[in-house]
């Protein structure tokens, strides 16, 4: 009997070890995902379209993730400017952010091709076409840098709001322009063309235009209305200077901590939110302009001759942008995509 027990002993130990491992795994697996949290930063105002979409994404994720999942949004730049939020994600203070190209290019520079090429895109159809062509490669690059892209959105066309009326490029050379604090390359280019950039964070725009520190603001109509910038800068140049493009990203670490069900729910909710942001934001641009017109906004539309001056300025900007603000290979790819799209459309 003792010899039989001795022969069975190693097998009993292995079996018990296997059962113990299965039991530990069964109890540990839910807990590993239950402790996860998502803290999301954004410059978007509280209760805005973008904030509401982020809330819906959060509800979908929290429901799928289960007990213990926490979801917090910090709107209104509560976690600093966009470059600050990119840094906070890297060190784990935020798990995600809804950013424009200004913040996204801190992660992956090629994204700047969608926003930093003025007067290049003539319609939203062109923006959508180029973004979708670039999207798989862009998302792969973000993943390599440790970030998962959940949604692509935009916030309208940039227009110029100024204290004094202006319609020609030369009219703006005497003004002091708001410039993103994190975009030193853009500031250098502006200076080389005779313009005066004043680097600030978004939260500083309103007090700075009120005190005269700046006298012109490139901004979307929605932002100008929501921030009340138009009340101090009541002149708007009616040109589509560039689209404001953005994306919702989360860190790969946060993504990997989620349950498979939560990942799927987040991906689905993100895609839906991106579509809502793009569709509704574009409509809100026109609504914002009409609302500001009723409150005194003066709109200035360039003549064909004046528009040629703006296009000539853009042509001067492109060689300075290529390889400096936008990686040369991505710049060339966008140019080719637009050429192909326009040829096919005709």
Automatic annotation (TrEMBL):
Keywords: Signal. The keyword Ribonucleoprotein does not apply. Gene3D superfamilies: Bacterial extracellular solute-binding protein, family 7 (3.40.190.170). It holds the Pfam family DctP. PANTHER family: EXTRACYTOPLASMIC SOLUTE RECEPTOR PROTEIN, PTHR33376. This is C4-dicarboxylate ABC transporter substrate-binding protein. It comes from Zoogloea oryzae.
